[in-house]
Amino acid sequence: MRLSTVILPVRPWHDGGRDQWLRAEQLGFHAAYTYDHLSWRTFRDGPWYGAVPTLTAAAAATERLRLGTLVTSPNFRHPVTLAKELISLDDISGGRITLGIGAGGVGFDATALGQEVWTPRERADRFAEFVPLLDRLLTEEAVTHEGTFYSAVEARNIPGSVQRPRLPFAVAATGPRGLRLAAAHGQAWVTTGDPKLFETGTPEQSIEALRGQMDKLSKACADIGRDEGELEKILLTGFTPDRGRPLESLDAFVDFAGRHRALGFDEIVIHAPIPDSVFAADQAVFEQIATEALGQLRR
Predict the structure, then answer these.
(1) Measuring CA to CA, how many Å separate 125 from each of 18, 19, 85, 150, 182?
(2) What is the pTM of this model?
(3) Which end of the chain is more exposed for a tag (fewer CB within 10 A), N or C?
(4) What is the mean pLDDT of the chain?
(5) Are 138 and 86 in contact, with CB atoms under 8 Å apart?
(6) Which residues have CB under 8 Å from 74's CB, separation 6+?
(7) Burial annotation 219-249 (CB, 10 A radius, 16+ → b, else e)
């Protein structure tokens, strides 16, 4: 199992932001991700910086740490411009970028460009067009495409990604159409659990829901003849009924991680603490988990 972190882009780069990414590398995390939003929930009225510039700076400041989004969505992105930014990030980082990508939701990003909130059906339709086109843009030298939602005319991305045939996609999905995209285009699958259980569910119910998602992913892979074992399974924590309890102590996290490793997860992602927020946690405990948890899980 691998352990990674999410660093929300809320700190100015020269006032604590850079230090967080360097510390993540020092602590030995497999990867450090950030959210790709224009703003997010309770952070809407405070500082929030762009994901791509933040990752660019992090790529220049670090040497070994994998970097990426968790997740990008079509809410305010276009495949043509995103592809150009991704190959640039992959170059600057020396091939350390993972694209976490999902269908998006109904938050602030959904209306920031003046559009109406897309229905769940339209989000799924857009995602189903967005991912395959982005895949082509990152693997072909010139792409022309005329779709329902997105078009490209002789879009060029030379020389392509440092990682071949392209940088990896970690596709966030729980529904059948998204899971089919993960099976067809993903190198990893991402989940946050079942959102219906967040408020009133139990950890045991969450485990069963995640097992059900795994079964559906296996079926989506089997339907196209893909070995489900080729897909990494990533759990972004903080959105299951456990909430912040796994970060209360090293023992609590090891218990949480062990139960989810038994389900088949390869990577668990924890949020870097942000005081006075939904991601408040003890920094010392967070760092102890980063340095000691995997050793305990291997015993």
Answers:
(1) 37, 40, 23, 11, 15
(2) 0.96
(3) C
(4) 97
(5) yes
(6) 103, 104, 123, 126, 127, 130, 149
(7) ebbeeeebebeebbbbbbbbbbbbebebbee
